[in-house]
TrEMBL record:
Class of this enzyme: hydrolase
Main location: nucleus
Catalyzed reactions: ATP + H2O = ADP + phosphate + H(+)
Source organism of the structure: Carpediemonas membranifera
Keywords (A to Z) from UniProt: ATP-binding, Helicase, Hydrolase, Nucleotide-binding, Nucleus, Transcription, Transcription regulation
Lineage of the organism: Eukaryota, Metamonada, Carpediemonas-like organisms, Carpediemonas
The protein's name in its UniProt record: RuvB-like helicase
Length: 460
């Protein structure tokens, strides 16, 4: 039986996560926060500070240092950290971890941290490679004669025509390259290049001359390449230290850049040891010194940092000393509390020696107006229509309880409206029905606790 997933994902089943509306920090050209921007509302001091952090990260001035977002629950700490990631863009590595994720039966705590630290350090490698580049003018797979039995035809080779501004060339290529061409979905009119050594195929985009009259196309149009079809081209590749660790966990070949890179993408199951990492670091440092590669310190975001214990903290403290350290962003909603694994009480549950390295960005509770704006943004993202009364009710609830609670009510309210009342728009009454004081459909934590107290608990 052939299983296809293509028709399964309908609009309804697309999962919308709670931070999907955040696309940046919403700062103006001078770095001042817009009242509303990139999906963010209010919290302007913290957003401006986060913007400065982004600039420092870009200027590589924060490596080995750390930022802590501190503030009450639901004040946007996680949201802002993700905003930083969005501002930094795809070329800066960003890795995320929740404090409690370090506790696993299979992997040591420090190993989890180490892996994440190394996922957050990028290398940009520039290499001059021999390539064939051009717009595809012909793409003809040639079937092998007299294939042995079976229904499938085998491809013996493929004829590929490539055109540049300067000229055209027709290539006869091996069948393995045919597979790669198919994987990249190469068609006539695409601009591609093929690495001469490895035969790796890269689709750059669609050629300008094929740009259609339709604007709504998820297609990148690129100009016809200049120069010869066969030439040397500088190729930039972004990888992380973790990619190199994994790729070299089963070392084969030498430690020059080509063989290290060739390990990429080959599946291995060997454990990554400290020794291996030291070796990788040595080679990386050589790359850096010789100018083949450039270091791109990225960001490791550790949410709910109070869940880390003293062992993790001292490991992090040492890791931050390394010359290959990323910028670490922490977040916590704890004030003073005990450092996990000790009885020492410290601000935010973080040891003082680590606190000394941090700059702290404070987040504040939202006003009712700000909550109303955020509720509207979320409703739009979740495709839920609210009338003004519903927005008002939700923002009142949000201001009394928490922003997250208000956002959380959106989906149940829209389901109630649809199925119990056949209504497309959520109105205040629907929300009242969910959470009123007398006979609510859903209790909030405070109501629930009050009932437990009244009844003396469940176990009697
Ligand atoms: N300023 C804001 N603008 C728009 N949406 C926001 C803003 N602040 C928070 N949100 C949204 O509100 C919800 C709660 O915020 P978030 O999860 O960031 O809070 P938090 O401070 O990390 O809370 P906790 O301490 O409980 O982890 C999320 O869905 C988040 O995307
Ligand atoms: Mg959070």
């Amino acid at each position: 039986m052939k299983v296809s997933l293509e028709n399964v994902a309908t609009k309804e089943s697309v999962r919308v996560d709670v931070h999907s509306h955040i696309v940046g920090l919403g700062l103006g050209p001078t770095g001042a926060p817009l009242p509303m921007g990139s999906g963010l509302v209010g919290q302007q001091n913290a957003r401006e500070a986060a913007g400065i952090a982004v600039e420092l990260i870009r200027a590589k001035k924060l490596a080995g240092k750390a930022i802590l977002f501190a503030g009450p629950p639901g004040t946007g700490k996680t949201a802002l950290a993700l905003g930083i990631a969005k501002e930094l863009g795809d070329n800066v590595p960003f890795s995320m971890l929740v404090g409690s994720e370090v506790y696993s039966a299979e992997v040591k705590k420090t190993e989890v941290l180490m892996e994440h630290l190394r996922r957050s350090i990028g290398l940009r490698i520039k290499e001059k490679k021999e390539v064939y580049e051009g717009e595809v003018t012909e793409f003809t797979p040639v079937e092998a004669d007299g294939a042995i039995g079976g229904y499938e035809k085998t491809i013996s080779h493929v004829i590929l025509g490539l055109k540049t501004v300067k000229g055209t060339k027709s290539l006869k290529l091996d069948s393995t390259i045919h597979e790669m061409l198919q994987k990249e979905r190469v068609a006539v009119g695409d601009v591609i290049y093929i690495e001469a050594n490895s035969g790796a195929v890269k689709r750059v985009g669609r050629s300008d001359s094929y740009a259609t009259q339709f604007d709504l196309e998820a297609e990148e149009y690129v100009p016809l390449p200049k120069g010869d079809v066969h030439k040397k081209k500088e190729i930039v590749q972004d990888i992380t230290l973790h990619d190199l660790d994994v790729a070299n966990a089963k070392p084969q070949g030498g430690q020059d850049i080509v063989s290290m890179m060739n390990q990429l993408g080959k599946p291995t199951k060997t454990e990554i040891t400290d020794k291996l990492r030291t070796e990788v670091d040595k080679v990386v440092n050589r790359f850096l010194e010789s100018g083949v590669a450039e270091l791109v310190p990225g960001v490791l975001f550790i949410d709910e940092v109070h869940m880390l214990d003293i062992e993790c903290f001292s490991f992090l403290n040492r890791a931050l000393e390394s010359s290959l350290a990323p910028i670490v962003v922490f977040a916590t909603n704890r004030g003073k509390c005990a450092i996990r694994g000790t009885e020492i009480v410290a601000p935010h549950g973080v040891p003082v020696d680590l606190l000394d390295r941090l700059v702290i960005i404070k987040t504040m509770p939202y006003s009712k107006e700000e909550i109303a704006e955020i509720v509207k943004i979320r409703a739009k993202i979740e495709d839920i229509t609210l009338d003004d009364g519903a927005v008002d009710k939700l923002s009142t609830v949000g201001a009394q309880r928490s922003l997250r609670y208000a956002i959380q009510l959106l989906t149940p309210a829209s389901i109630l409206a649809k199925f119990s009342y056949g209504a497309e728009t959520v109105v205040q009454d629907h929300i009242d029905e969910l959470i009123n004081d007398e006979n609510p459909l859903f209790l909030n934590a405070r109501q629930s606790a009050a009932i437990m107290k009244e009844q003396g608990g469940y176990l009697q």
